[in-house]
Write a structure and sequence with these properties.
mainly alpha; two-stranded antiparallel ribbon; 68% helix; three-stranded antiparallel beta sheet
């Protein structure tokens, strides 16, 4: 019945595969097909890696070129989309908090909601303010006086 027909069809398919394998092995001389296939895969992987690097370099170049608007230079691209630092395995990192996350969405969630991140942002802003005020004070103190 139905199971017998399925078994017969399956045996026919197996026989066709075996015949095609025999014909393929007889028609082609013995060449190292697996190693050629492997080198092709490695080459394709390398090409993908280097094309990704080229894209990253182009993105970096476009981020570094300032956009002028009305005579005022702005880095609008970099301001709107901060670069996401990733580990070698591809996990995004919050450089400020020194934490890694499973995906970019989790990183953005951390940046929006995390108390640690907000605290570290405040510390960073305070340190930058201290440096800026120290630079301003040093600029006033370093005035030359002829005595």
């Amino acid at each position: 019945s139905l199971s017998q027909v399925a078994a017969i069809e399956k045996s026919k398919l197996i026989e066709k595969k075996m015949i095609s394998r025999k014909e393929a092995s007889q028609s082609t001389p013995s060449t190292p097909a697996p190693s050629a296939n492997h080198s092709h895969k490695v080459h394709a992987k390398d090409m993908d890696k280097w094309s990704e690097r080229v894209k990253e370099m182009r993105d970096d170049a476009t981020l570094k070129t300032p956009i002028t608007e009305g005579g005022k230079e702005t880095d609008a691209v970099q301001a709107n989309t901060p670069k996401i630092v990733k580990t070698p395995s591809g996990q995004p990192i919050c450089v400020l908090c020194k934490r890694k996350f499973a995906n970019v969405e989790k990183l953005h969630q951390h940046e929006k909601l995390s108390a640690l991140h907000k605290e570290n942002l405040a510390k960073k802003a305070a340190a930058e303010e201290k440096i800026n005020s120290a630079d301003k004070n040093d600029a006033h103190k370093e005035v030359y006086r002829d005595r």
